[in-house]
Amino acid sequence: MPSRVIRRKINFSLARLTFLLWAGISTASGISCTKDAAAPQAATETLTSPAETHLVSSTLIGEYSTSQLAGRVSDIPIAGALVRYPIRVYRLTYTTRNTDGKNIIASGALLVPTVGGQPLPLLSYQHGTIRPDDESRAPSYYSPNSEVYSAVSVLASTGYMVAAPDYIGYGASKNLPHPYEHAASLASASLDMLRAAREFGAKEQVAVGKKNFLLGYSEGGFATLALHKLMEEQASSEFTVTASAPGAGAYHKSAFADYILKSDQPLSFLSTYVWVLDTYNRVYGINRPITYYVNQPWAAQLQTNLYGEVPSQAKELFTPTFRQGILDKTDAQLLAAFRDNDIHDWQPKAPLALFHGTADDYVPFFNSQDAYNAMKARGATSVELRPIPGGNHFSSAASYTLQAYAFISQY
C-alpha cells in the first residue's frame, strides 16, 4: 500500500492533476499516439467458446523512471513528491464477452510499479466517455492525451497495480461499436481485465495482493458501480472488493429518462444521450429507426454522424411518440432496457463512497442520492454519500480525485 507519509503529502495541488486524469469526460479532439505507443491489435475473429484463461498477450509499452513521471506534472507544485516508484506500462489483450454473448478480444493498459517484490494492491480504473472519433485516448494506447498517461501513472507510482480497461469498442475491439452506458458489458469487460491482470502477475512473477480497489468518474463512475455489483454478486469466489469510489455516474437510468423528457430547460448532454438510446436500441434488439426517437432534420444528420450537434431542448429534439411512451410508461421494450441499467438499488458489502457535484447539470446529483437512499434502505452499512457542494460535472472532477484517493487509502 502507498505509505501514510506519501498520502499525507496530498493536497489541493493533486486536484489540478485531475484535469489531465479526467480528460475523457470532455469531447476534446483526438491526438495521434506517441512514438512508444503503437496502436493496439485489431480484434480477432469471434470465438465460439469461452477460454479457460483470459490473458491473450502482453506487450511492454515502456518503462518510466520517477523523474520521467514527475516531469509529466512538473508544472504542478508538490505533484512530483507523490511519485514514489518507477513503473512499467503494458498493453494487455484478453478475452471477454460482447453484448451478444460471444467471446471477443479486448484490450487495456496495465501499470505496474517496481516496488521490490512486495504484493501490490490492484486498482481497477474505469475511464470516462471517449467518442469513437477520439479513440486514441483509450488507455491501451498510452498516449499523452489519455487519462492514464499522467495522473493515473502518478497514482500507480504510489504503489498500486492499475488495470485500465479500454472497454468494448476501443483498442483491440475498435471494429465493434462501444456499448455506451451499458452496465453489463462495462462491468464484464472490466472484470475480465482484472482477471487478465492477475494472470499477468502469475506469468511474470509480479506479486499481486488480495486488495482490490475500484475508481472511475462519469461513464467510468457508472462502470465502477456496475463492476462492484458484478464482483460481489457473481465473482466473490475470485475477488473481494476492498473499497470503491465511483463518481458522478448515471446510476438511475429510468429516473434520468423521465428527467430529460420532462425538462423545459436547455440540457447540455443531449448528444450523448442520443448515443445511449442508440446503444440500447441495438443491444436489446429493439431496432427502431432513429426517426422514431429524433425529429427531423436532426434524425437525418445523426444517421450520418451519430455524435453530431443537436438542439439543447429535449422537446425540440425528441419525437412526441418517443417521449409519450416513456412518460406514460407504455413503451415496454425501452423501459425494460432502462431498468436493466438501473444499478442504484442493491446492497453492497464493501465500503462504497458515492461522489457527486450538487450542481451537476450533465449527470444530475439525484443519481447518487437515489443510489445512497436505495442502498441504505436495503441495509447497506458501509455506503457513504459524498456531495461536492456547488460542483458541476467538470469542476467536481478535481475534488473527486482528491477525495476518492484519500478514501481508498484508508483501506
TrEMBL record:
What the entry lists under Gene3D superfamilies is as follows: 1.10.260.160, alpha/beta hydrolase (3.40.50.1820)
Q: Which GO terms describe its molecular function?
A: triacylglycerol lipase activity
The residues the entry assigns to the signal sequence are 1-28
Q: Which InterPro entries match?
A: AB_hydrolase_1, AB_hydrolase_fold, Lipase_secreted
Q: Which UniProt keywords apply?
A: Hydrolase, Signal
One BP term from GO? lipid catabolic process
Q: Does the record's keyword annotation contain Isomerase? A: no
PROSITE patterns found in the cross-reference section? PROKAR_LIPOPROTEIN
What residue stretches are annotated with the AB hydrolase-1 domain?
150-394
PANTHER family given in the database record: LIPASE 5, PTHR34853
Provide the protein name. Answer: Alpha/beta fold hydrolase
Instruction: Say which species the protein is native to.
Output: Hymenobacter aquaticus
